[in-house]
Amino acid sequence: VCVIPVSGDVSGPVSEGGEFALIRRITARLTGSPDVLLGPGDDAAVVAAADGRVVASTDLLVEGRHFRRDWSTAYDVGRKAAAANLADVVAMGARPTALLVGLAAPGDLPAEWVDGLADGLRDEASLVGASIVGGDLVASDTLTVAVTALGDLEGRAPITRSGAAPGDSLVVIGWPGRAAAGLAALETGRLDGRFVDAHRRPTPPYDLALTLARSGNLTAMIDVSDGLLADTGHLARASNVKAEIDAASIPLADGLADEPGALDLALTGGDDHCFVATTSGPVEGASVIGRVLALDPGESAGVTVIGHSPPTAGGHEHWRS
Amino acid sequence: VCVIPVSGDVSGPVSEGGEFALIRRITARLTGSPDVLLGPGDDAAVVAAADGRVVASTDLLVEGRHFRRDWSTAYDVGRKAAAANLADVVAMGARPTALLVGLAAPGDLPAEWVDGLADGLRDEASLVGASIVGGDLVASDTLTVAVTALGDLEGRAPITRSGAAPGDSLVVIGWPGRAAAGLAALETGRLDGRFVDAHRRPTPPYDLALTLARSGNLTAMIDVSDGLLADTGHLARASNVKAEIDAASIPLADGLADEPGALDLALTGGDDHCFVATTSGPVEGASVIGRVLALDPGESAGVTVIGHSPPTAGGHEHWRS
């Protein structure tokens, strides 16, 4: 890794030391990995793509929409920004290898905030052996974090949204609804609510999802970013099948059942970055929550819930109220 | 390529049809390429990385800092955003294969603006055979375009900033200063100035730079995004050498010499996305502008200009006035 050593201390707002000093300061906090053939410091990074393909996904986080500085630390935001992107790569059945990070920051942003962000990104990536290989730093009125994640399919076919077949089991990997419960607590001023950390710092079950992907039994998978209901719907429509969720089978994390509207939180909350998958075989560690059915003549692909009336506004969509 | 067909017309502001309709609308405008193994529409894209490595770079463009909607069309912004990233990949000696695009947009942004942006990104990428493989779309008060470019080294070693050696020639590929002249015209209200299009829509010399990279004669290369002087300085310091620029050898595009401060524009203007390179052999089509020298004992690596006193504030740095 091409790490440029920090030549002096930068403190105060990011605008004080200038862009290049801040880039040196951030770069010095990063670590490499065997996948990083050329790290930060040049026009572009070079990352290993051993099987001749690379998986790539990008996400933006905007202050006031995806995070609030009074609710989350910079470190939390870094963890969350990395998690959102790493989960997209894992949802394809790929091992994440690298992150690229663009930061648009107001001039009065404390340089320490950028340190925290970099540390959070680094530590979340390191959970799956990935590292930050490059980025960009620009001035903006709106604090925005743009992350791109790369990944390695290890010789396997990607697990798309469109591979679900009638007869498959529908499973969820992880615990949906915790981040939404945490957000609901924050929005009502309960800053010490039980699940606020699940909102601040989601914990996608990377290892379990990758283990199941490597087993070869998954036929389709999607990262739950818009909500269990909405994303199962995306998967069902991409596969042109009907997905049926048994409400009683949705796993609720310890204590979540005590929260008001727990099942609705689990069905519509997206920020946990669980995974919904379909499988034709055993999936140890995942929770079977339903099944995949063929469409009747004239029927539209989609998702239905058995045993619960889901809220009408299911899942998150930008510019929708 | 997995293109989701547009099921209906979306017009008016982006907020009207919602995020998913807008994504379908954009995706329908895109085209694929043999490098795209799985395009937009899933959690992540899959792109060919034939030689087992991938080159990756990311850049942000922020309204009011990198573009203005009253000076540039959406199509211009798309061309420019793509160019900035494609040039970074080419500066490593790699053939660009794919772009990922994040768009943070105010709810009142006309949906037609997003069409123009997508068309501009697509058309600039197609100049080098690359295509848009994925993206993200979020709401924000500040219009921001985040682009990540991927590239293929075609079996060669990357051309870094650090390979320049004493005795090499210093060359520029392209015509520096035109975008800065155009920006100066726009800033003084001359909207029909001779070089305004060079600011709106830079034309990096991708093909020539790649041809020279493939020749094997280049020892170092950098994309000129901060200015010829500043970026030659970056290259010289990364290579621990002294770079000497002959001011009289800097190529000035037709008509640029008539602009006030033409040489300063060429030395400090960055948005042309020319390339500065060093070479140990012939470089047909590039302009030799100087040479690489060894450091004298105690001397610092850097760049000097012969025959002209460059302005003290050389090149662009965010949060620097």
| Total strand segments of chain A | 12
- Provide the helix percentage of chain A: 25-40%
Strand order of the largest sheet of chain A: 8-10-7-11-9-12
**Poorly predicted tracts of residues of chain A:** 1-10
Largest sheet of chain A: 6 strands, mixed
**Mean pLDDT reading of chain A:** 91
**Quaternary structure of the protein:** homodimer
- How many DSSP H or I helices of chain A? 9
Distance between the first and last residues' Cα of chain A: 45 Å
Structure explained in plain terms:
2 copies of one chain form a homodimer. Chain A is α+β, with helices and mostly antiparallel strands and 321 residues long. Chain A contains 9 helices and 12 strands. The first copy, chain A, has a 6-stranded mixed sheet. A 4-stranded mixed sheet of chain A has the order 3-6-4-5. The longest helix of chain A has 17 residues, at 74-90. The first copy, chain A, is globular, with a radius of gyration of 20 Å. The interface between A and B is large, with 76 and 76 residues.
